[in-house]
Specification:
This protein is mainly alpha-helical. The chain has seven helices and no strands. It is globular, with a radius of gyration of 16 Å.
């Protein structure tokens, strides 16, 4: 049992690290802004007030540790997605991982960003309030595909 738990955690962390490296590469190569995990932390902190959706999370009162909270939330969600993958694909998937289950999960998880996080922070449904919604959506698809490669690749590496 412990073997499954540590592998699940490692898969989620590995996939999240790869996604972060992708964001760094996009920033350095194309000058795209990196995710602002501080604003995500502010959003998470404000959930305790019972408010999920904000017009602009930047206008909500700040929290002293919002950046730390945002990063922790980012990695906890990655671990949770790793656990969901292992639960749905089965523990046997860990012994012989395949890309398709990881890819399906990676694409499905875009929904959490498009229909919870983005509107929660004021970016609108599926990033509709951003300056360039199609570009934002394409970048989300690419990032979650990279996340899927991270799920699969980490499973192979630790197998």
């Amino acid at each position: 049992m412990f073997d499954i738990v540590w592998r699940t955690i490692a898969i989620g962390i590995g996939a999240t690290v790869l996604m972060d490296l992708w964001a760094i590469a996009l920033n350095r190569i194309f000058g795209l802004p990196r995710p602002n995990w501080g604003m995500v932390g502010r959003w998470v902190w404000r959930l305790q007030d019972g408010k999920v959706f904000h017009d602009d999370i930047g206008q909500a009162s700040p929290y002293g540790y919002e950046r730390t909270l945002g990063w922790a939330f980012h990695y906890l969600v990655g671990i949770l997605y790793g656990a969901i993958l292992v639960f749905l694909a089965g523990a046997n998937w860990l012994a012989a991982p395949t890309f398709l289950p990881a890819f399906i999960l990676g694409i499905v998880t875009i929904g959490a960003g498009w229909f919870l996080l983005a509107p929660g922070m004021g970016a609108g449904w599926a990033a509709s309030n951003t300056p360039n919604p199609p570009r934002a959506r394409l970048l989300n698809l690419a990032s979650h595909t990279i996340f899927a490669f991270g799920l699969y690749g980490t499973a192979v590496l630790i197998g």
